[in-house]
Amino acid sequence: MVLEMKVPSPGESITEVEIAEWLVADGDYVEKDQAIAEVDSDKATLELPAEESGIITLKAEVGDAVAVGEVVCLIDTSAPRPDGAAPQAEKKEEPKKEEPKAEPKKAEPKKETYASGAPSPAAKKILDEKGIAPSSVAGTGRDGRITKEDAVQAVPSMGTPTGGNRGETRSKLSMLRRKVAERLVAAKNETAMLTTFNEVDMTAIFELRNQYKDEFKDKHNVGLGFMSFFTKAVIRALQMYPAVNSMIDGKEMISYDFCDISIAVSGPKGLMVPVIRNAENLTFRGIEAEIKRLAIRAREGEITVDEMTGGTFTITNGGVFGSMLSTPIINPPQSGILGMHNIVERPVVKNGTIVVAPVMYVALSYDHRIIDGKESVGFLVAVKEALESPEELLMDGNVKRALEL
After folding, report:
1. CA distance 316 to 337
2. What are phi and psi of 330, to 5 degrees?
3. Which of 45, 63, 65, 35 is nearest to 271 (CA)?
4. How far apart are CA 199 and CA 381, in angstroms?
5. CATH 2.40.50.100 describes domain 2-76
6. How far, in Å, CA of 268 to CA of 264, rounded?
């Protein structure tokens, strides 16, 4: 029996996928549920498992765009496993009769002449001294001959490099990368995007992490990072400024009473943005555990479309790559995105005295069509206040209870 394997639907609104890589070769024996291909949708890279065991025949090539429901391969389920198949009788190769070889004709040596474009001995010496390739000089002599006068007048190029590697490669963008590019351009073209900046003194968070991170890790088997503090601070600010937790749908504005926070992570196929659902109901431990789970799934290529669909606000951390400051692009159809950056010791004024403190610059890009300047600035100030006073504003004055220690 020959089974036709069709492209399953990876998720709502996805009508086609692209064959990113075949993990098996045509004619291989595959086991049921074995990953046979990686396919790119416009939202994620997914593995395609074999539906049955048997010999596979591929019906699509790498790079092909295949519609959902289209046949991509055939599996002959009646074919025996290789270890159970009867060994093929070895064919004895008959010795080939050697045919008398025709003697190759000896090519007559070509006589190099100045007419072929080669420089004269005097011209060649001058060009060598100048470091000029004869091929870059147009000869004015008979039949293109490079004369001594040509060599004297030749000027080395000051702008065109010579002798170096000038190769280039061309590769097709994955469907995921193309879709990300389209969405980013659309966000720039279709929203009234502005960015506001602020700085955060991270001293209080540093002190809390240094004091409790080991105990937190031992009890919860997950690290106490910066992302849980930022997520908590963002949730508080979203509840204070609900317009930032809204989006435009035609002529209407949709506001949400929940906070689904998208966290940008770097995956093998590019940037992915999995979503922490109802983050407002999670503790520090819950947020850190969910971020770790989603990041691992994204980096191992196991993230699903559903895990990246939705989200009411995005946090992106360019600081892990060393970014000092940037203007993040809104993740449509959301209306706001917070950019985190690296933490650098900088001189700051406290109580009239200059001291050194760990400072992070933060950026909020927002859609000015529904978020006014007052709300955007107020939102970012609220994030700053919460991060600089986490015990009071994020932990209700009880650190151990907030960290479940």
Report:
1. 7
2. -55, 140
3. 45
4. 9
5. yes
6. 13
Domain ranges (residues) in the chain: 2-76, 193-402
Kindly give, in sequence order, each residue whose CB lies less than 8 Å from that of residue 279, ignoring residues fewer than 6 positions away: 231, 235, 259, 260, 261, 287
Cα angle value 200/205/209 (rounded, 5°): 150
Q: What residue has token string 């749908």? A: 249
* pTM for the full predicted model: 0.66
Domain 193-402: which CATH number of 3.90.180.10, 3.40.830.10, 3.40.50.970, 3.30.559.10: 3.30.559.10
User: What pLDDT tens digit does each residue of the chain (405 aa) get?
Assistant: 888 888 887 766 678 888 888 889 888 999 988 888 888 876 677 788 888 899 989 888 888 888 888 898 999 888 888 865 444 444 444 555 555 555 555 555 544 444 456 777 777 888 888 788 887 787 777 767 788 788 888 877 666 555 567 678 887 777 777 777 787 788 888 888 999 999 999 999 999 999 999 999 999 999 999 999 999 999 999 999 999 999 998 889 999 999 999 998 877 666 788 999 999 999 999 999 999 999 888 888 788 878 888 899 999 998 888 889 999 999 888 999 999 999 999 999 988 999 999 999 999 999 999 999 999 999 999 999 999 999 999 999 999 999 998
Residues 228, 284 contacting (CB under 8 angstroms) = yes
CA 23-24-27 angle, 5° bins: 165
Which active-site residues does the annotation give? 368, 372
